[in-house]
Structures are given as structure tokens and as C-alpha cells.
């Protein structure tokens, strides 16, 4: 049989090789993290049996029964092996704290956190990047001054302080948004997520805006821009050229910011009483609820690994110089 | 400040005159340094309790900012807390940036397996849950200020590595690097004498940015009980201890809270200005 | 017992707050704090009551998670064989009557009109099954300890259950209530949902006046009035329980009028709540005990003189007055005065307990004691307290300042409540807090835990052990109390536990919502039936 193979750009094969290598690295990282977290949680202070019994008298028989139930007396390696062999076939076990399957526990919380992060990230990017570019194009204009001032405070005030400020403002003076809890149904959920996502987006937006501004400013000061201007290139084209080159650091930081989001949700979820993954991870770590902690950290790690891979790939797509260097050899 | 005379070009127009906000920032940081110098003289008074007199509102005789539940003077406590607010964050930012410069430039310039390993190591650090690490570290080594600082150096470093790497990567294909390579200069020389100065604005801005972030993070951890011990002079700790006495002595919370935000703002402003000055000088 | 969830730790951090806004709210004139007595019952129906809890529940079955908040919520939908009323008296529950033919045997006669919330009648087999589940440490780790003395539970008739004990236990009667360890559930429901009972997937089946209609951990529980309950239907149709871990958020939700009842308002923040015009705060002793506990196996706390020196260094009166703002009482014993209510009036109880040897704050005596000890020049020790108890933290710092004067360095450390639990009796901490919430209100509960066999102090005193055994076998309340006081006197001489204070809890109510009586026991049995719309 004859198949016409379309002509492929010469960089496809190295690209595929690079992606495969990264995926292999990702699997190794997940394995290392699962071991690390398992070991760390084992070493961490606290006692699962005490958490189950509470501050109550307990006979040695009761303690022994509970330790046997959760295999706490097995050596660490055996406990890990048992977890790993089950996890590999998709069985993440029971949450000891909730007495429910780990998958169910996580599934019921994922929606809120995902929506919160997506909304906050979208908000941060949509607002911060254009503002950063605009302030860089006209440095020290009124827009630049006010945006820089706002971003300065956004950056310097802890996110929970912003959240609480919003809470007070919207509880006292402008009671149009709900101050706590998740909603019922997609529209109501979105409505409930307005304040939390603003609180989460403000700090991120400030970082993103500043990085965008610094990067674009630097590009605009670069020699090639001077040449372009000297050759009489139109200002809009000059700006486009600078933006294209500024895109790499902006994408990297946007990716990094996205990973910061995942950690930042814990505080915001707690302030706004949202049943999300952040609060789940926090309480599971403290309870030593190993099944939930393992599944969640691996999920987060996988997410972060995928994000960094996508960020790195976008380098290649955005910058021919990097592409040449990365895949040329 | 001599750099100012070197300024020129479009962006420099703004730098010719030092804006008022920058002056205020410098004054605030200078005041903080004075406060740190005063610490040995106030720390005994700051931790002295007087539980019977208890809580006094701001403006009480002998206590301008009042006292907390244990009868400790808020003003002295705040002054004594300046050190932990600034020294730790500076160490965190410097330490993590050193790691960042070392591994970021190594990875970006050498590429290949080394870069791959460094990249995955930063991925690993970034992917670890901060909470878990903070709790475990506090549990195993005991919670303490310097342990938390050390932990934050490690947690801050992956993003520094990535930022430096991105900066270097972006410089690497530029003509001046190729020219240097053609002159057969050593890799280290090219890296430290040619590429890094061009990444310096990015590094300085990030360094100062990191001090501000570290200040906020460290004080957050302090009032989570993962930093300094309860009762120690520390702004974050003061805020967490003081929020329950908001009604009786609001100064106990508001003063350290405003100080954290103001100092963080000042550091950011100075960082911006410094980044600008350096980038203009290196352009010359 | 986890009185609040782990998230409270973050909560306290977050509440750091935008200070200025808080001050604004605080400056408004303090509203009148009415008590229920001033409200008149309008008799009107109440469509919904929103209850705000300071932390989340993980599971609806208290056997799985036995925090004080779990008890509050479980007692809305669940019942035991008996119940405890607001005065601490035992009342009929699912059993309309009971008798005790001999000290080891209890025979309960069940109501014939009791039904589960799905309409099925409650059978003796269901009750026996529920007791068996509560006894099983792997199924009910949170409550099984209190049923350890049960030899057998059998259905001895269509409406009769007989429980036999291995040894006489005067406190047993409360154990089979929702204030103790029994939450009667349907056998067929439990077996159909094995391993999932109390989760959001399976919920829980009880006999109480409300059934749980939804549960989402970290968010909410909703309950709906049913007509299967044997008692008079309550006025409130639905109850929504919201988990709001951050205290500022909870306060603001109350300010917006979104909350009708808020449990366990932190004592330090009660003034702020009292200033709200739409809420009132009621205080009640909460049967909690706070004290210092020594581990006699760990040097230097194996030396009674060292323990004595520390006992003399605590300024209990100043702590209660300044740090608890008077919402509590200096404890003279491990038993709370309320737990003596079966035998004595409050005044009598206070007098009885005050007669136990006390260590009143006296640094001179403390210095003398440390000088006479094996460590005359002092030592250094670590002292941890749970982050959910900020008042414990300030008290610890005050203690540390006093101890510094006699040469002892106490390193005070704050840890999450889970880690604090793990330090109790861990063989590493020689001195620590004991913070205990009693639900049964039985006088022997705390002494048995802290002095009985296998206690956390490694304290073995044959005299005390024998007194506790006798107390357990004695039915007469006054005689029991006398034995327990003897045991407390003995331990006070040995300085094993130093009682600090008996706690109070603050509950905030909407100013139009009345409750018949707020007391230590008020929220441990079908409490929504006592709510009314007031004016």
C-alpha cells in the first residue's frame, strides 16, 4: 500500500523526542513525590490513632485494634508498597477521616477549586497583561502611575487581608455578593465565586502586571527596537515586535503564577468557607489521612508538571531562536 | 546615587527626579534599620508582662500604643519585632537568588542533561505542597524562626532558577554572546562577564520583589504558629495574638499590619527604582 | 476531643483582618444583650434556622468523629435510649422506661410508637445492633471506650432490650444517650451502606425529629422536620448547618443577618458579637476542664517538689479574670461543679470541691519548693498548646513568665490540635495541658481518665485506684462524690494534675429566636425542639 507522507518540518522529530523525555521525567517525579510525601507524612508529628479516638481514654486493646485496622504496625516500605500497587490500578483507598472513598472525596471538591482557580487566573491575565503592556508603552503616564500604585499594594498586602477587606466592604456597604459558601448550580456557584476569585486574582494580577511591564519596557529599550525605529518602522509594528519578544518571560511567569494559585486557594477557601481542595489538603495533612494526601499531592504535582511542560513548549512556539537552539541539535 | 548622573534616554526622564514615594520608602527602611539597632535596648522591656494591669488602650500613660492582654507594651514590642521582619526576608531572598543564579545559568547555558535534571528538580520543589513541608519541618526540627527562613530559601529557589534560566536563555542567542564565543572566551567568563550583567535588572527586581514576598510569607507563617514562638516579638505573631483584643486595643493589630504592608511597598518601590537605574547603566 | 476542626488554625491566622474595618464595626454602640427570659414566645412557625459552626464535620456519625460539634449536630437527628435534659437530668428517649434488677443489669422498655425517619418502626434488634456498632473500636473509635464495660446487649422482648455489664458502673445510665455513646440507627440501613454511614453519599438514619437531607463536608448539612417522631413536632421546619471556619467571616455573616445560631463563639470575640444589634450572646458552663498534667515518668517531673513548684507558679485568678475575661471559673478540682448536680446544689458543690487541697499562686512557696527539689537551679522544658485554644496560649505565656522567676525555662509552643493530641502521654512531654470537654457530665469521667488504670501520667497509687473502683460501683450520688473527692485529694497531694479553670462557652442567637434554656447540657439532645420565635 502506498501512503503519501506529507512533508514534515524538520523539527517535529526532536520535538516528539523532547516531549517523550519530559513525560518520562514527569513519571519519575510523580514516583519520587509519592515516596517523599508518604515518608514525610509518616515522620510528621501527630498520631492517627489519637485523631480517631480524640482526647479520650483508650485501652491498649482498642489502640491495637485500630492500628491493625489501618496496618499502622507494618514497616513503612510495606505500607508504601501496598499503597503503590493499589494506586497503580486506580484504587486510591479510603479516606480515614471521612470514611469514604478517596476518589469520591476528591471528586466532590474538585469543581469548586477548579472554577475558583480558572476564574482567578482568567481575571488576572485578562486584566493584568494588557495593563502591563499599556503602562510599559507609555511609562509614567497617568495609567502607568495608577496601575503601578495599585499593583504595589496588591503585591504587598497578604491575600487574606485583601479577602477580608472585600468581605467587610461587601458585607457592610455593598451587600450584593454572598460572603461565604459555595452555590447551587452553575450560575449560583459563579455568583458565590466572585469575591473569592477577586481576592485570589489581585495578588497574582499584581505580579503578572509588574512582570509584563518590566519585560516589555526592557524589550522596548533593546537595541533592535532602536534600529527598527531608526529604519522608520511604524510604532505599532515596533510595539508588536517588542511584545513578541517579551512574550517568553511573560508566559513563563504566567505559568508559574498558575502554580502559585494552587497553593493560594487554601487561604481563600478558608476565608470564604468554600468546600474545595485546599481546605481538604490542609485538614488531611494534619489528620495524617494518607490516602487523601497522596492522591491530592500527586494530582497537584501532575497538574504542575503539565503546566510547566506546556509553558516550556510555548517557548518553542513563540520564539524561533529558542526553537532553533532547543531542537536544532 | 551617583548612577543618577548616568541616566539618559527616554525612560530616564522619570528617574532624573526622585519621586516623593521613593523618598518616603528610603526613610521608612532607614527607620527600620534604626529600630533594628535599638533592639538590644528594648527587648527586655518588650517582653515584660504585667498581667494584673492587663490590657490598656492606646494613649495610656507610659504606653503610647497601649498594651496587650499580658500587659506588654505594644510600641516596644513592635520595635523589637523589626529585626525578624527584615533580616529573615533579606536572607531568604539572597539565599534563594544565589541558588537561582547558580542553577538557572548553569541549566540555561549548558543545556543538555544538566538542564534537564535542574529543570525536573525545580519541578519537584514546585510540586511539593508547601503546607506539608512546613508542618513536617516544624515537627521534625521544631518550629523556629531560622528553620522557617531556611525552608523558605528552598521554597523560593525554584522560581528564581526558572526566572534566571528564562533570562539567560533569552540572552544566549544574542549576537554579543556569539561574538564572545567566537573569541573562544571561557563559558564561565561569558556567563558571568557578559550574560549575567544583562540579566541583572531582572535579578535585582526579583530579589527585592522576593524580600517583600518573603516578609509577607514569613509573617503569615508566624501567625500560623510555624515561625517564631508565641510571645516573641514579631509583627506577624503580634497580629495573630492581637486580633482577639481588637476592640480594646486596635493598635496591637493595626500598627504591625500597616508596617508589614508599608515596608513591603517600600522594598518594592526601591526594587523598581534600582532595577531601572541598573538597566540604564548597563545599557551604556 | 477535637472541639473544632483543623481549619480553625488557618482561621485564626486569617482573622488577622483588615484591622480598620473591624474597628469601625466595633465602635458602633453596644446593643442590648437580651436573654431568652426577656423574649416572649409568639408561637409562630419558623421556616428555617441557620446554624453556623466554627469548623467542619468530617462524618455525621459521632462514633467516627467524636468532636463536640459532632455531638451538637448528631443530637438533632439521632436519639439514644435515654436523653439528658437542659438541667442534666436523665429523661426517657427511645426507651419509655427502664429498670435495674441488679447492679449489673439494665432492662429498657422501648416506646412502641418510635419510628425511623424512613417510616420503619424501631425494633429491639435495631437498638442491640446500634449498641454493638458503638462497642466496636474499629467502627466507632470515638465512643467505644465508654462501652468497654458492656458484657452483652440482647433483645429480650419485642420492645425490650437488656444490657449486662461486667462491673457495676454508676455512670452507665448516661452512656446510652446521645450525650454519651449511643446513636440508634436502623440495622438494614447500616448494612446496606456498610462503611459509608455518616458520609455525604449515605448520610445517616435516625429516629429524631429531623432527618438529614444533605451533607457536604466543609460546607453544610441540611435537615428537615419529619412527622415520624414520637414527640410533639417542633416549630422549626428546616435547619441549615453551615461550616464557617473563619471567625471574621462568621461574624460578618451574622452581621448580614444570615445566621440564627452560632455555636462556640470564641470568648475573646464575644464583645464584638454582643455589639451586634440582631444577635444576643448567651453563656453557659460547658463542662470543660483545663488543667496542667504531669507525666511522672519523665525527669524532672518525677520529682514531686518540681511539680509543686510549678503548681504554685500559676496565677489562676488573674488568668481567669484577665485572659478569659471572667467567662470561666478558677477550678479547684478536675470534676466540674455541674457534674455534682445529682447530689448537691451549685453552692454546695463549690464548697465541697474547694475543700480539696489547693495550690494558690505564691512565688515564695514556688521558690522554696524548687530549692528543695532535685533541680534547685531550674531546668528547661517544652510546653505545647493547641492552636484552637488561644486562651491556653496566653495563659501558658503568663505561666512561663512566672516560672522564669524561679529559674525554670518553659518554651511555649503552639501546634495544630491534631499534633497536640499526639503529645498527650507521648512519653516526651513531662508537663502539658489537659483540655477536656465532658458530654455526659458524670463526675467520674475526668478523674477516671486522668487517674484511672493506664492513665497518661503514669501515676499509680493503689489508694486512688481503689477509690475510683469503689466510686464506679457506688450508686448513691453523694457517696460517689465523697469517694471521688477523696481520690482528688490524694492526687492533689501528689500534684499529678493542677486544675486551672472550668470553661464557659458562648452561643449567639438571633434576637428573634428564643431557646428555653441554655446550659451545659442544652445541645446534647433534640435541642431544636426548644427553639421558638420570640418577640
TrEMBL record, chain B:
This is ABC transporter permease. The lineage of its organism: Bacteria, Bacillati, Actinomycetota, Actinomycetes, Micrococcales. GO terms for biological process: transmembrane transport. The chain crosses the membrane at residues 20-42, 74-104, 124-156, 195-218, 251-274. It comes from the Bacteria. PROSITE patterns: ABC_TM1 (PS50928). Pfam families: BPD_transp_1 (PF00528). GO terms for cellular component: plasma membrane. It is a multi-pass membrane protein. InterPro entries: BP-dependent_transpt_permease (IPR050366), MetI-like (IPR000515), MetI-like_sf (IPR035906). It is found in: Cell membrane. Residues 86-271 form the ABC transmembrane type-1 domain. Belongs to the binding-protein-dependent transport system permease family. Keywords: Cell membrane, Membrane, Transmembrane, Transmembrane helix, Transport.
Automatic annotation (TrEMBL), chain C:
One of its GO terms (biological process) is peptide transport. CDD domains: PBP2_NikA_DppA_OppA_like. Residues 1-29 form the signal peptide. One of its GO terms (molecular function) is peptide transmembrane transporter activity. Keywords: Signal, Transport. Residues 89-456 form the Solute-binding protein family domain. The keyword Zinc-finger does not apply. InterPro entries: Peptide/Ni-bd, SBP_5, SBP_5_dom. SUPFAM superfamilies: Periplasmic binding protein-like II. GO terms for cellular component: ATP-binding cassette (ABC) transporter complex; periplasmic space. Coiled coil: none annotated. The keyword Nucleotide-binding does not apply. Belongs to the bacterial solute-binding protein 5 family. This is ABC transporter substrate-binding protein. It comes from Lacisediminihabitans profunda.
Amino acid at each position: 500500500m502506498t501512503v503519501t507522507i506529507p512533508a514534515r518540518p524538520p523539527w517535529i522529530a526532536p520535538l516528539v523526542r523532547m516531549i517523550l523525555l519530559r513525560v518520562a521525567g514527569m513519571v519519575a517525579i510523580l514516583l519520587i513525590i509519592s515516596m517523599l510525601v508518604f515518608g514525610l507524612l509518616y515522620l510528621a508529628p501527630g498520631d492517627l490513632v489519637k485523631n480517631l479516638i480524640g482526647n479520650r481514654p483508650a485501652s491498649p486493646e482498642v489502640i491495637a485494634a485500630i492500628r491493625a485496622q489501618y496496618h499502622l504496625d507494618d514497616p513503612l516500605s510495606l505500607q508504601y508498597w501496598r499503597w503503590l500497587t493499589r494506586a497503580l490500578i486506580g484504587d486510591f483507598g479510603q479516606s480515614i477521616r471521612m470514611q469514604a472513598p478517596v476518589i469520591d472525596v476528591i471528586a466532590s471538591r474538585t469543581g469548586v477549586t477548579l472554577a475558583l482557580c480558572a476564574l482567578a487566573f482568567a481575571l488576572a491575565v485578562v486584566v493584568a497583561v494588557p495593563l502591563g503592556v499599556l503602562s510599559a508603552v507609555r511609562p509614567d503616564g497617568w495609567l502607568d502611575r495608577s496601575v503601578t500604585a495599585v499593583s504595589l499594594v496588591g503585591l504587598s498586602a497578604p491575600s487574606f487581608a485583601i479577602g477580608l477587606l472585600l468581605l467587610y466592604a461587601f458585607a457592610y456597604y455593598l451587600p450584593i455578593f454572598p460572603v461565604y459558601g459555595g452555590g447551587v448550580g452553575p450560575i449560583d456557584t459563579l455568583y458565590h465565586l466572585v469575591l473569592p476569585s477577586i481576592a485570589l486574582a489581585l495578588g497574582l494580577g499584581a505580579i503578572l502586571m509588574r512582570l509584563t511591564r518590566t519585560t516589555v519596557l526592557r524589550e522596548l529599550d533593546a537595541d533592535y527596537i532602536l534600529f527598527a525605529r531608526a529604519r522608520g518602522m511604524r510604532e505599532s509594528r515596533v510595539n508588536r515586535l517588542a511584545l513578541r519578544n517579551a512574550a517568553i518571560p511573560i508566559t513563563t511567569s504566567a505559568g508559574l503564577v498558575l502554580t502559585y494559585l494552587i497553593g493560594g486557594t487554601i487561604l481563600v477557601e478558608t476565608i470564604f468557607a468554600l468546600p474545595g481542595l485546599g481546605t481538604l489538603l490542609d485538614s488531611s495533612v494534619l489528620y495524617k489521612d494518607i490516602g487523601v494526601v497522596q492522591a491530592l499531592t500527586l494530582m497537584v504535582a501532575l497538574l504542575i508538571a503539565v503546566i510547566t511542560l506546556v509553558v516550556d513548549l510555548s517557548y518553542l512556539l513563540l520564539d524561533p531562536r529558542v526553537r532553533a537552539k532547543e531542537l536544532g541539535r | 546615587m551617583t548612577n543618577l548622573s548616568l541616566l539618559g534616554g527616554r525612560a530616564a526622564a522619570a528617574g532624573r527626579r526622585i519621586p516623593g514615594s521613593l523618598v518616603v520608602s528610603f526613610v521608612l527602611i532607614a527607620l527600620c534599620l534604626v529600630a533594628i539597632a535599638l533592639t538590644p535596648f528594648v527587648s527586655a522591656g518588650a517582653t515584660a508582662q504585667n498581667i494584673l494591669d492587663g490590657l490598656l488602650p492606646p494613649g495610656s500613660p507610659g504606653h503610647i500604643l497601649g498594651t496587650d492582654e499580658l500587659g506588654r507594651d505594644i510600641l516596644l514590642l513592635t520595635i523589637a519585632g523589626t529585626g525578624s521582619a527584615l533580616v529573615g526576608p533579606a536572607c531568604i531572598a539572597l539565599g534563594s537568588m544565589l541558588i537561582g543564579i547558580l542553577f538557572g545559568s548553569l541549566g540555561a547555558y549548558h543545556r543538555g542533561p544538566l538542564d534537564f535534571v535542574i529543570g525536573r528538580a525545580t519541578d519537584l520543589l514546585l510540586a511539593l505542597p508547601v503546607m506539608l513541608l512546613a508542618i513536617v519541618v516544624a515537627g521534625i526540627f521544631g518550629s523556629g524562626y531560622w528553620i522557617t527562613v531556611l525552608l523558605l530559601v528552598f521554597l523560593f529557589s525554584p522560581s528564581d532558577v526558572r526566572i534566571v534560566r528564562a533570562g539567560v536563555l533569552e540572552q544566549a542567542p544574542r549576537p554579543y554572546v556569539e561574538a564572545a564565543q567566537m573569541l573562544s572566551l571561557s563559558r564561565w567568563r561569558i556567563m558571568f562577564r557578559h550574560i549575567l550583567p544583562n540579566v541583572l535588572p531582572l535579578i535585582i527586581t526579583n530579589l527585592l520583589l522576593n524580600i517583600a514576598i518573603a516578609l509577607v510569607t514569613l509573617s503569615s507563617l508566624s501567625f500560623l504558629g510555624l515561625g517564631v514562638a508565641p510571645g516573641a516579638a514579631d509583627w506577624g505573631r503580634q497580629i495573630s495574638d492581637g486580633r482577639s483584643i481588637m476592640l480594646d486595643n486596635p493598635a496591637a493589630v493595626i500598627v504591625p499590619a500597616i508596617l508589614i504592608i508599608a515596608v513591603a511597598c517600600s522594598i518594592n518601590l526601591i526594587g523598581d527604582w534600582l532595577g531601572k537605574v541598573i538597566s540604564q547603566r548597563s545599557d551604556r | 476531643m477535637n472541639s473544632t476542626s483543623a481549619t480553625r488554625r488557618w482561621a485564626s491566622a486569617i482573622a488577622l483582618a483588615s484591622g480598620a474595618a473591624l474597628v469601625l464595626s466595633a465602635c458602633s454602640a453596644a446593643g442590648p444583650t437580651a436573654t431568652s427570659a426577656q423574649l416572649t414566645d409568639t408561637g409562630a412557625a419558623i421556616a428555617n434556622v441557620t446554624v453556623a459552626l466554627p469548623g467542619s464535620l468530617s462524618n455525621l456519625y459521632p462514633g467516627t468523629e467524636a468532636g463536640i460539634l459532632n455531638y451538637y449536630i448528631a443530637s438533632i437527628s439521632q436519639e439514644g435510649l435515654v436523653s439528658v435534659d437542659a438541667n442534666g437530668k436523665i429523661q426517657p428517649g427511645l426507651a419509655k422506661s427502664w429498670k435495674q434488677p441488679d447492679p449489673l443489669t439494665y432492662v429498657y422498655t422501648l416506646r412502641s410508637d418510635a419510628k425511623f425517619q424512613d417510616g420503619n418502626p424501631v425494633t429491639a434488634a435495631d437498638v442491640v445492633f446500634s449498641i454493638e456498632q458503638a462497642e466496636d473500636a474499629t467502627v466507632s473509635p470515638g465512643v467505644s471506650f465508654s462501652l468497654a464495660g458492656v458484657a452483652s446487649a440482647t433483645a429480650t422482648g419485642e420492645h425490650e432490650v437488656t444490657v449486662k455489664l461486667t462491673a457495676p458502673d454508676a455512670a452507665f445510665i448516661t452512656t446510652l444517650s446521645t450525650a454519651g455513646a449511643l446513636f440508634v440507627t436502623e440495622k438494614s440501613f447500616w448494612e446496606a451502606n456498610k462503611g459509608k454511614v455518616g458520609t455525604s453519599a449515605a448520610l445517616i438514619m435516625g429516629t429524631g425529629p429531623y432527618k438529614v437531607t444533605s451533607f457536604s463536608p466543609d460546607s453544610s448539612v441540611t435537615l428537615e422536620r419529619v412527622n415520624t417522631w414520637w414527640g410533639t413536632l417542633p416549630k422549626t421546619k428546616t435547619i441549615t448547618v453551615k461550616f464557617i471556619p473563619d471567625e471574621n467571616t462568621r461574624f460578618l455573616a451574622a452581621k448580614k443577618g444570615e445566621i440564627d445560631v452560632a455555636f462556640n463563639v470564641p470568648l475573646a470575640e464575644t464583645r464584638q458579637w454582643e455589639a451586634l444589634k440582631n444577635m444576643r450572646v448567651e453563656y453557659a458552663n460547658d463542662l470543660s476542664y483545663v488543667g496542667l498534667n504531669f507525666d511522672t515518668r519523665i525527669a524532672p517531673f518525677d520529682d514531686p517538689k518540681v511539680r509543686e513548684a510549678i503548681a504554685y507558679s500559676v496565677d489562676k485568678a488573674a488568668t481567669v479574670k484577665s485572659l478569659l475575661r471572667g467567662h470561666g471559673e478558677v477550678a479547684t478540682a478536675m470534676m466540674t461543679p455541674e457534674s455534682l448536680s445529682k447530689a448537691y446544689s451549685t453552692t454546695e458543690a463549690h464548697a465541697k470541691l474547694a475543700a480539696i487541697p489547693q495550690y494558690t499562686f505564691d512565688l515564695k512557696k514556688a521558690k522554696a519548693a524548687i530549692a528543695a527539689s532535685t533541680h534547685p537551679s531550674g531546668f528547661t522544658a517544652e510546653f505545647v498548646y493547641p492552636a484552637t485554644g488561644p486562651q491556653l496560649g496566653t495563659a501558658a505565656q503568663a505561666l512561663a513568665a512566672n516560672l522564669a522567676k524561679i529559674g525554670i525555662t518553659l518554651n511555649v509552643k503552639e501546634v495544630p490540635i491534631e499534633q497536640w493530641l499526639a503529645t498527650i502521654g507521648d512519653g516526651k512531654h513531662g508537663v502539658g495541658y489537659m483540655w477536656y470537654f465532658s458530654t455526659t457530665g458524670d463526675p467520674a469521667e475526668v478523674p477516671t481518665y486522668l487517674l484511672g488504670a493506664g492513665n497518661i501520667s503514669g501515676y499509680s497509687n493503689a489508694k486512688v485506684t481503689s477509690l475510683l473502683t469503689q466510686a464506679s460501683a457506688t450508686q448513691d450520688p453523694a457517696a460517689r462524690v465523697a469517694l471521688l473527692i477523696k481520690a482528688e485529694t490524694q492526687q492533689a497531694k501528689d500534684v499529678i494534675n493542677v486544675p486551672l479553670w472550668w470553661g464557659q462557652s458562648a452561643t449567639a442567637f438571633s434576637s428573634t429566636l428564643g431557646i428555653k434554656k441554655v446550659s451545659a447540657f442544652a445541645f446534647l439532645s433534640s435541642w431544636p425542639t426548644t427553639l421558638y420565635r420570640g418577640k
